[in-house]
UniProtKB/TrEMBL annotation:
Protein name: TetR family transcriptional regulator
Species assigned in the record: Streptomyces himastatinicus ATCC 53653
GO molecular function: DNA-binding transcription factor activity; transcription cis-regulatory region binding
Span of domain HTH tetR-type: 18-78
Entry annotated with the keyword DNA-binding: yes
Domain of life, source organism: Bacteria
Keyword Cytoplasm: no
Residues within the DNA-binding region(s): 41-60
InterPro entries noted in UniProt: Homeodomain-like_sf (IPR009057), HTH-type_TetR-like_transc_reg (IPR050109), HTH_TetR (IPR001647), Tet_transcr_reg_TetR-rel_C_sf (IPR036271), TetR_C_31 (IPR041583)
Length: 216
């Protein structure tokens, strides 16, 4: 293949689809983190990497397929942060505190990544071809959080009054809310108080110190 540069024809080294795939995912993440999901056309993503637009379609098929790969990549990065932040030798309450603190550090240090994931999630709600990717994201995050809570309880011989998945879903719902508040209207003092309240409520829920009200 020849790439025209001015009056010269320069041969381009062939790059396999397997090699090109992570490059395009990174280019898409870089572009959409900087300019938003709406800017993530295949043409713009190709230009970000410096390849032909056809390369994107050859590697992924459609824009939605590339978006799905981006969501999967962001999900795996988030899960790695969750698992890395969980201690392996602490009690139940200490584990929840450490997990929340580690996750919150990533929100404050990498807010644009969370913003992109939020934008992609909203986009996926109206894109039938991305519904499975969105559901997979939430299932995986919930499953890993449930596993960490279960392991922490077993390690500390702490009996969970509520199912681990219920606790995990509540924690993630509260954390998502705090993250959106941070992205929309940052307030360090209020956010810290909210995070402490969330952790305290999660621990109380798990320990039976919080009565849940039935909702019809």
């Amino acid at each position: 293949m020849l790439k025209r540069l001015g009056r010269y024809d320069v041969p381009m080294a062939h790059v396999s689809a397997a090699e090109r795939r992570p490059q395009l995912i990174k280019a898409a993440i870089d572009l959409m983190t900087r300019e938003g999901v709406a800017a993530g056309s295949t043409r713009a993503i190709a230009a970000e990497l410096g390849v032909a637009q056809a390369t994107v379609h050859y590697t992924f098929g459609t824009k939605e397929d590339l978006y799905r790969a981006v969501m999967e990549q962001l999900t795996q990065e988030l899960l790695a942060q969750v698992e890395h932040g969980a201690p392996t030798d602490a009690g139940f309450e200490e584990t929840v505190v450490a997990l929340a603190a580690a996750l919150w550090r990533t929100v404050r240090e990498r807010p644009t990544s969370y913003q992109l994931l939020t934008e992609l999630s909203m986009f996926a709600l109206r894109a039938p071809s991305l519904q499975a990717a969105l559901q997979s994201h939430y299932r995986e995050v919930t499953a890993v959080t449930t596993k960490l809570i279960t392991e922490a309880a077993e390690r500390a011989d702490h009996e969970l009054v509520q199912p681990a998945e219920t606790i995990a879903r509540f924690f993630l719902a509260g954390f998502d809310g705090l993250t959106l508040q941070h992205l929309s209207l940052p307030d360090q003092e209020a956010e810290q108080a909210g995070l402490q309240a969330l952790v305290s409520t999660v621990v109380a829920m798990a320990s039976g110190r919080l009565d849940l009200v039935s909702v019809p």
